Design the sequence.
């Protein structure tokens, strides 16, 4: 990505892990949908960071909830604590579909998707099917940056150079149900442990959405062959698409639901893997190794507060209604724009596929004090994602649309 010339805060050179990396402003505070830089500039966060922020920034209530438990210190993950129990109860009682009464906590998306891959294998081994190790992934897709999650995904830019480290997990197309069935047969169901899917494709596809028919075929095939169906809801979960989980828009019925990002609202590193009771029962007594920071108390307390705020302020409903308005305004403004190939998504989750450089658009937006998220891989060459915190107002939507228009107009030369 290009170096931002519009700002050269003295702190950025000393922060960058890699020499020559892009330069960004130093952020010192947050306020609703705005990030506030050390020079006082207010940057409209039109992507909630990395599609993370749902309740918006500057919520001291979340920090207070975490602070209240953090003085206790560390407790090994297998022991219950009040904040672990409270988050588990919040999830089971108010968020997860019926029959998902077991949750494994992690420190983010990659740890969660990686754990789900491990869970699929453990489930099959517990059933005596040692030959099942493959986890199907879709093309394009993104599931994280551990070597396991890189292997199961299809995001060429993020995999490049690491190929020898990655297990050869089979890939199926994101939209072709017949091809899915063909790959399952070719690979032999007796070798397949799981199938991981993003209900709406995020970073790699900028909101590519498969048909209901596709999801029905995927669900039926997984049931028929007892392939564990994993919904990676790291981006689409916790209200982002206007329902609790993205899979709920489709006839997609997962066995495992993976979450991260919005679960902690961006305030803490937190992820969760929930599985159907039948799946967890299969593993009874076998053990499932945790991470040192599984169920970190500060993270659990903050996560429970984020979810409570979302319920109290009806923010999932707001993501649906205000999100529909955002989608309409994007379609009004860019539907006929020659630089925009497609506008797709729902709730507070939109992708604009572009006929011009996404990095140039991101930079042009930054020059106008707005952040949008660069996306795309494989069939989606250039795209940006618009996914603001759910608290965005109508006036802020107008500012977002006008700024994005100015950025794209500045980049696109026809
Ligand atoms: C669908 C999906 N899964 C997994 C991940 C990995 O999450 P994290 O970056 O928190 O490790 C991401 C991150 O963008 C994602 O979008």
Sequence:
């Amino acid at each position: 990505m290009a170096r931002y010339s519009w700002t050269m805060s003295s702190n950025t050179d000393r922060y960058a892990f890699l020499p020559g990396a892009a330069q960004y402003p130093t952020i010192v505070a947050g306020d609703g949908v705005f990030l506030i830089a050390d020079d006082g500039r207010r940057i409209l966060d039109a992507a909630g960071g990395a599609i993370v922020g749902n309740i918006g920034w500057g919520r001291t209530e979340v920090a207070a909830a975490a602070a209240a438990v953090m003085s206790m210190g560390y407790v090994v993950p297998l022991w219950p604590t009040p904040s672990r129990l409270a988050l588990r109860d919040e999830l089971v009682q108010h968020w997860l579909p019926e029959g998902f009464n077991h949750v494994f906590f992690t420190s983010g998306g990659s740890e969660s998707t990686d754990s789900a891959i491990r869970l699929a294998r453990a489930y099959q081994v517990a059933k005596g099917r040692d030959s099942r190790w493959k986890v199907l992934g879709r093309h394009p897709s993104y599931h994280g940056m551990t070597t396991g999650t890189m292997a199961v995904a299809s995001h060429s830019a993020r995999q490049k150079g690491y190929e020898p480290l990655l297990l050869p997990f089979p890939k199926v197309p994101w939209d072709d149900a017949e091809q899915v069935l063909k790959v399952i047969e070719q690979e032999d169901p007796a070798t397949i442990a799981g199938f991981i899917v993003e209900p709406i494709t995020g970073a790699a596809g900028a909101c590519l959405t498969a048909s209901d028919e596709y999801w029905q075929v995927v669900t039926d095939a997984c049931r028929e062959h007892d392939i564990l169906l994993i919904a990676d809801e790291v981006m689409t979960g916790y209200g982002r698409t206007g329902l609790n989980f993205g899979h709920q828009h489709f006839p997609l019925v997962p066995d495992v639901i993976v979450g991260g990002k919005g679960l902690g609202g961006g305030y803490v590193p937190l992820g969760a893997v929930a599985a159907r009771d039948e799946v967890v029962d299969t593993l009874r007594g076998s053990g499932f190794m945790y991470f040192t920071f599984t169920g970190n108390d500060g993270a659990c307390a903050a996560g429970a507060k984020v979810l409570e705020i979302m319920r109290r302020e009806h923010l999932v409903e707001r993501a649906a209604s205000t999100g529909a308005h955002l989608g309409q305004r994007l379609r009004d403004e860019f539907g006929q724009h020659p630089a925009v190939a497609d506008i797709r998504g729902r709730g507070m989750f939109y992708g604009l596929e572009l006929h011009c450089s996404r990095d140039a658009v991101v930079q042009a937006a930054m020059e106008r004090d707005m952040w949008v998220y660069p996306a795309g891989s494989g069939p989606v060459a250039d795209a940006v994602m618009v996914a603001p915190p759910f608290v965005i107002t109508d006036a802020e939507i107008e500012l977002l649309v006008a700024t994005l228009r100015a950025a794209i107009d500045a980049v696109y030369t026809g």
Remarks:
- The radius of gyration is 21 Å.
